[in-house]
UniProtKB/TrEMBL annotation:
The lineage of its organism: Bacteria, Pseudomonadati, Pseudomonadota, Gammaproteobacteria, Cellvibrionales. This is PaaI family thioesterase. InterPro entries: HotDog_dom_sf. SUPFAM superfamilies: Thioesterase/thiol ester dehydrase-isomerase. CDD domains: PaaI_thioesterase (cd03443). It comes from the Bacteria. It comes from Zhongshania marina.
Amino acid sequence: MSANDMVPDGFHLVNAAPGFDVHMGNIYLKQVGEKKVLGFRVRECHLNKAGTCHGGVLTYLADMQLVPLEDQISSNNFHFPTKNLDIDFIAPVPRDAWIEIEADLVRETKGTLYSHAVMKVDGRIVVRTTACYHIAK
Ligand SMILES: CC(C)(COP(=O)(O)OP(=O)(O)OC[C@H]1O[C@@H](n2cnc3c(N)ncnc32)[C@H](O)[C@@H]1OP(=O)(O)O)[C@@H](O)C(=O)NCCC(=O)NCCSC(=O)Cc1ccccc1
């Protein structure tokens, strides 16, 4: 394992769902105080032709923002279809970067989860995202 493959202390592997998730690479979770933070290592297979992390990969990660919020959701549903996802690519993410995703549950209504998140590399915000998820009855 090279230094670039290292998973920072305290992060534990999240079991990938079968299907598409398996192809995206490992996602990790860490408890930080009362919150959980997601972690992801950018590999060569995640790069675009400019040599930085592909926007589709960052959008996939943005759609993972409910994972660190699961303990805060009162609905017992196991799947929340995405109704809306907005994303700002604020700065390019280089190969081998370790991305940390910090999410907040803004509100849970009868039919919708509202959340937002930022992605950071070395403490600097590289992505901002907001999302709404459907709570099926
Ligand atoms: C260049 C610009 C677009 C605009 O910048 P502005 O607003 O004018 O502001 P500013 O110039 O201040 O820069 C802001 C920060 O960026 C940093 N920085 C800038 N240029 C470079 C550089 N060449 N290299 C390194 N860093 C650079 C800069 O230092 C600063 O960071 P700092 O304050 O030092 O920490 C910037 O927002 C950017 O690169 N965003 C990321 C775009 C991106 O990765 N998109 C996704 C991939 S595309 C895709 O795959 C398509 C797709 C999408 C969806 C689905 C499918 C496919």
